[in-house]
Amino acid sequence: MASFPRVLPYTASLLLLITLTLTACGSMPKGLSSTGPLRETDDVALLYDQTYRNTDGKEFIEQEVMDEMLAMIASAQTFLVIDMFLYNDFAGENGWRPLSEELTVALIDAKTAHPDMPVVLITDPFNTIYGGMDSPYFDRLEAAGVDVVTTNLAKLPASNRTWTTLWTVCCRFLGNSTRGGWLPNPVGPGKVTLRSYLHLLNFRANHRKTLVVNTGTEWRALVTSMNPHDASSRHDNNAVIFSGAAAQDLLQTERAAALMSGYDAAENWPAAPDAELDTDGEFTLQVLTEGAIETRLLTLIDNAETGDQLDLEMFYLSSRPVVKALIRAHERGVELRVMLDANRDAFGREKNGIPNRQVAWDLHEKGITVRWCATAGEQCHRKWIRLDRTDGTSEIVAGSANFTRRNLHDLNMETSVYLSVRSDHPEIEYMRAEFERSWSNPGDTLYSLDYTAFADHSRWRYGVYRFMEATGMSTF
């Protein structure tokens, strides 16, 4: 038997490893994973971006989200906070819409028009490859007086636990530099450091996409799946715009993100009004972040009954609790239609279809109808689900969150909204018509493809999907 002095170093090392693992895998910081109060409002608009083609291959691009975002920024009079995940021109080409430039000009114009107005951008460090390069957009914003807050991702729980435990030991406290990089930028021109790559492997992100403004007379907010990223400018996306107390609820979630990242000025941001349900609005609306999104999502699916219609359009669908809930709903007699991105196109690179093709196999085997968005370089980047009940009401969950472990299990930072309204409301009829158009390919248009177009029944790739989803060793 080994003596106690010889065993002690091994025991100490094991305890240190356990401590580091628990530290890396901690809980969401204060104010995150938030369930807002149920609010009622008449002012809700649903927006869509869509790229599609006709049978002759002619391309059509219909966009609403960025135009409305720019209009909201121009309307700001006393307050403006925006939180955007991808804000860069990486992988962009001539012909892409310059979303990053448009947003930069709009924010600078807003600050110039109202010098005393707080204008704050919260964003993810991926836009500087984790400190390995400068962002010309952020430099211009800061020079104009816009406060740029880079999210402190180290405060978030570990998604890729295996690597983040090692990262905590070897690299977390090392600095980064925009000079001296010798490795190729993984998403654009230039060189970056090894530390940028090591940071990337944590797969942590502030994946939110929100905007809150005060126009001088009201609070307005936007929650979207769209990134102001040039190479994403042809993607299919969705957004929800709303006003009133729920917009102030959204501001509180961004206040938590800012404070977590060391932006102390957020302490002085105005609070939301008391959580009293106004009974005058047509829409019931609730702001959700992080794990609270999955709680509401599973409640929506599990409460669907025989004869109800459940439609889903999603960029990434991989969460096992969500997949199982969808199958249970189908088995109860819920009419279910699922539209997925084929996970093929990634800014000039071709992906292997994981995870959507594997999840689609699960659903197809159970008799659920699945179709693929007919993309050609762009992505079907929408993230929403709608339940039309036989009692004449509809419920929606829509926003930034993919339905994946990383997006729903208190790992990434995410924002979505829950909506409830009568099924014949014009906004719901518009949403339903948009989905019907994509599902059925009317006339000579091509929006979607049959399941067989990208069916993948490889057991090897299915096993890879399940491993990646369970461990966090993936980008989805």
Would you give an account of this structure?
By secondary structure, the protein is α+β, with helices and mostly antiparallel strands. The chain has two domains: 38-51 and 62-267, Endonuclease Chain A (Endonuclease, Chain A, 2-Layer Sandwich), CATH 3.30.870; 278-471, Endonuclease Chain A (Endonuclease, Chain A). Helix content is 32%, strand content 23%. It has helices spanning 4-24, 65-75, 99-113, 136-143, 161-170, 194-200, 245-260, 291-302, 320-331, 356-365, 405-408, 426-440, 459-471, and strands at 39-41, 44-54, 59-62, 79-84, 119-123, 147-150, 183-184, 191-192, 209-214, 219-224, 237-243, 283-289, 309-314, 335-340, 345-346, 349-350, 369-373, 383-388, 393-399, 415-422, 445-446, 448-450. A nine-stranded mixed beta sheet has the order 1-12-20-19-18-13-14-17-22, sandwiched between helices. Strands 2, 3, 4, 5, 6, 9, 10, 11 and 21 form a nine-stranded mixed beta sheet that branches. Strands 7-8 form a two-stranded antiparallel sheet. A hairpin with a 4-residue loop joins strand 2 (44-54) and strand 3. The protein is globular, with a radius of gyration of 23 Å. The mean pLDDT is 92.
